Amino acid sequence: MAFLVETDVGFLRLKLYGPIAGADLFGMLGELSRLERELPHVPHRLIDLTEITASEVKAEEVREIAARRRASRFKNGFRSAIAAAKPAQLGYARMFQILNEHAEIEIQIFPTVEEAVAWLRAAKDPGAA
Description:
Elements lengths: L2 E6 L2 E10 L1 H17 L5 E12 L3 H13 L6 E6 L3 H13 L5 E6 L2 H9 L8
Parallel strand pairs: 2-3, 3-4, 4-5
Antiparallel strand pairs: 1-2
Helix pairs in contact: 2-3
């Protein structure tokens, strides 16, 4: 398992690291879906791709994950910040962004984790009334 899902102040932090495969993405999606069902509101999230060292993820697996997200209905709208520093990481991030058009999700890609976190913290908390 080459991913970690944890809570941070005001958002979820999803981190992929080392060599990854499609199974890692599907595992992370399962954990994320569970949290979205259990939490009182869907929080913003940071998807950190900056420590991926190699990838065996196929384009059709990214398309399948994006299709599942597009079909999902959420309790509220939220932001999804993707940190991607290297060209291959950026390629996956852009593919996901393009394929995952959803009225409730605002996705932006950043070259650093710090810039992604700043964008998330600048947004209104989805759980605020």
